[in-house]
Design goal:
Elements lengths: L3 E10 L5 E12 L9 E5 L8 H4 L16 E5 L31 H14 L5 E7 L1 H12 L4 E7 L7 H15 L13 H15 L2 H7 L12 H16 L2 H12 L10 H5 L5 E7 L7 H10 L3 E6 L7 H4 L1 H13 L7 E2 L5
Parallel strand pairs: 3-4, 3-5, 5-6, 6-7, 7-8, 8-9
Antiparallel strand pairs: 1-2, 2-4
Length: 351
């Protein structure tokens, strides 16, 4: 289904206290809500993805896949700050009549979730059968399950964490340094910071994959190469690919939103916050993940009351959550069929 828009006509207040009118949220839906209204699958997307989950999570979501529109009412909403349909830095600031750019309000994971709760209310969704997400999407799903525990029945958290780590924040800050080193970032134009964004994406890729991934996929075929190495051209290609579809301002703000993730803020700590999750929860980690190490998912597994755990052994690193869809399908299917009853069920090494 094509992109839809919801406009919240009341005042939306960010966690920072900033208030705006007319918040817009872009979203996609697939399938129909059944008569019992108990077939909702809500997907929270990652950093630079969009609300068309059938496009970027093929193999898990599609007409012939586990999550299909015949059986489920699937919803995916675009996050705040992203240029794919929701309120973002390239929108017009009503005060100046110009795009917000760096005057855009800083926002948090909690702000993203609050916006998506408003959309759920608008769609008449009182209960979400399955809420799932990976990476920044998993951060959203976890925050939602804590702030609105009665609405979430089953929760699937993939390659994510309870609070963003100093390691992850350092990666994000390094990317922001690359963006701000590009003087055009301050020029007030839609393509400002493009060269910096390209460099930032190159940095990010190193955390999404790992040594083994590059060793296999970018290895030179001959020993005589002196320049234009496969690994170098790959970094340039992937950097430019993001520049062609995104913008530096959205990327800058979204990286800060990821840094803000801490479910323990204002809740007497992370452990106390995780104890508030009422949903049956499946936590999936990727053994080779450098950005969200598997220890972070094991921590969630140990502290969420009704949790199961699965580990995927993928050589793709963090990106494995987008690629290993066959393994994820097996794991999620097994979890849904399992009666947890408050017990911890270990699904380790299914894949």
């Amino acid at each position: 289904m094509s992109l839809q828009h919801y406009t919240y006509n009341d005042t939306f207040e960010f966690e920072s206290g900033v208030k705006i009118q007319g918040l817009q949220i872009g979203y996609n839906t697939y399938g129909n809500l059944n008569s019992n209204r108990d077939n909702v699958v809500w997907v929270c997307h990652a950093l630079t993805a969009n609300s068309d989950v059938f496009d970027w999570w093929k193999g898990l979501f599609g007409a012939e896949d586990h999550f299909n529109p015949d059986d489920h009412f699937i919803v995916c909403a675009n996050v705040l700050g992203s240029p794919y349909g929701s309120f973002n830095p390239l929108d017009i600031n009503p005060i100046t009549g110009q795009p917000y750019y760096l005057a855009f309000p800083e926002f948090t994971i909690r702000d993203i979730v609050q916006a998506h709760k408003l959309l759920a209310n608008h769609l008449g969704i009182e209960q979400i059968e399955i809420l799932l997400g990976g990476s920044l999407g998993g951060q959203q799903a976890l925050e939602w399950s804590i702030s609105d525990p009665e609405r979430i029945k089953n929760l699937v958290l993939i390659a994510t964490n309870a609070n963003h780590s100093p390691w992850g924040i350092a990666f994000n800050e390094s990317q922001r340094l690359a963006i701000t080193a590009d003087r055009t970032f301050y020029a007030g134009s839609a393509d400002g910071g493009a060269k910096g964004l390209k460099a930032a994406r190159s940095i990010a890729l190193l955390s999404y994959r790992n040594y083994k991934t590059y060793g296999i996929t970018q290895q030179e075929e001959q020993d005589t190469t002196l320049d234009n190495f496969k690994a170098a051209t790959y970094q340039n290609y992937q950097g430019q690919k993001l520049v062609n579809r995104f913008n530096a301002y959205s990327y800058w703000y979204l990286s800060k939103a990821m840094d803000s993730h801490n479910v323990g803020r204002g809740r007497h700590g992370v452990d106390k916050a995780l104890s508030l999750v009422k949903a049956r929860t499946l936590v999936v980690g990727i053994h080779s993940d450098l950005l969200f190490p598997i220890e972070e998912q094991q921590y969630l597994f140990r502290h969420i009351p009704k949790a199961a755990f699965a580990e995927i052994d993928s050589f793709y690193g963090h990106d494995g959550f987008l690629i290993e869809t066959e393994a994820l399908t097996k794991i999620i299917t097994s979890f849904i069929k399992t009666d947890v009853k408050g017990k911890i069920i270990e699904l380790q090494k299914i894949a």
